[in-house]
Amino acid sequence: MKTNNVAEQINQTIEDIWIILEKMERAYTKFSLNNQQYVLLTLVIRHPSCSPSELAEKMAITKSAVSQQLAKLEKDGYITKKQHVEDKRAFSIELGEKGLLYQQEVEAFNQQITEKYHAYLSSDELAEMLDTLEKLNIILHKF
User: Fold this and answer.
1) Are 99 and 44 in contact (CB under 8 A)?
2) Residue 133: which CATH number?
3) For range 11-37, the mean pLDDT
4) CA 77, CA 84: separation in Å to the nearest integer?
5) What are the start-end ranges of the E strands in the chain?
6) Per DSSP, what are the bridge partners of residue 120?
7) Most buried residue among 31, 70, 90, 97 by CB atoms closer than 10 A?
8) Which residues contact 108 (CB under 8 A, 6 or more apart)?
């Protein structure tokens, strides 16, 4: 491996894996979501009760763009908005009925992928890979 191309090779491999997993998950779940809606729902699943501002920050997009996608997800039953008790102007995003179904299907998909990983890689290999990816994540967050 040439050291001057290592970042490009790592980035390309991560991108390839992400594209494959996204295609597989979309085929498995059968939900009609655009890329931003897919990411938003994933964030709501991973970070329950997030505010629209927090979601916009995590996605590095404007609050306006998030609001447009949230309105569509709410209309389609994927999410609901829950008003904060103390600040009546603020609200958090929760999974709606369809969002909960989506979450269940994603969890089932992830279980299948986990089984595939274990069929081809040892527990030590998986642990080492996860450790390395977590280190890369920390490095990239320092930029």
Assistant:
1) yes
2) 1.10.10.10
3) 90
4) 20
5) 79-83, 91-95
6) none
7) 70
8) 28
